[in-house]
Fold these 3 entries.
Entry 1:
Amino acid sequence: MTLKQQIADLKEQLAAAKQHTYIHETNTLQVWDGEVHIGFGDAQKERWLVWNVESIYKDLPFLIDQVVKEQKKQQIIYLDSIKETIKDI
């Protein structure tokens, strides 16, 4: 791969990465004027996600369903890990 091709590839990867924001945990949750404001990131570089309440309300059934399913998967993984650890004790 030439240097120009590598640069073009890296530019494409960067553009794709800029389209996504991963929020590991939130710092602030506030609601006003029909919007939910979610603060996340470092204290020095805090960022905000602002979401219209009506839109969230319409999406709540799907969000709750998916969060509950994923949480159940995580609990199974943690429980299996605990069981394996106890076997070794």
Entry 2:
Amino acid sequence: MNMARPISIPQKPSRRPGMTMSALMGLATLLAACSTANVWTGPSRPLVTDQPYTGAHRTMDYQLAFSYVFQAGGGGEADVIDFEGRLISRQGLETFILRLILLDASGEILATRVLYAPRGRQGAARTTFQRRIEVPEGAVKLGFRHVARERRERGNRR
């Protein structure tokens, strides 16, 4: 007589208690990262409000010499900065955008304003610019952020 062997069905592996704890730790880390997403971690400098300010900022992509005058708003008008800059960007950039970041005392980003963005992928150039920038209430520091992309060589199409 031919006896068939019983078929063994694999069972789901039982969850280890450590798996749940590591999943919770991962979730907590993700939530903590999301809660600080609006906090500036780059270099910043105090926003000078009592006199004209002159400064410089340099990265591997650009050099910026700038000055600004803080104008206190009155009669319900917002505070503003009259900002002037002289920008020298690295050669070979196809795209370059420079932004001013306005921060509160804890480093939270209150506003982001474009200082320089050439039109039509003209690339970055040596340039000067002037901007009048509204300052949000509570801003006490400023920083700079930029986007830079290399110019790609375009091959001959035949």
Entry 3:
Amino acid sequence: MNIHLCKGDETLDDALKYINEHDADNRTYTFDKEADRCYVGDEAFVNAPVLINYKNQYYALHIVG
């Protein structure tokens, strides 16, 4: 599991773009800003290949390619 910490004025869309451009295994990810918000310890958090931490809120990403 990797966690991307948003910095400064970085948006969720910026974070996703960065993650997709820099994935070591050339995987592509996506997420839904409402449905994929998760919390420390819940199933989505534990099973996500990548998490985005945006203003202390976590979003679980899904592999699409």
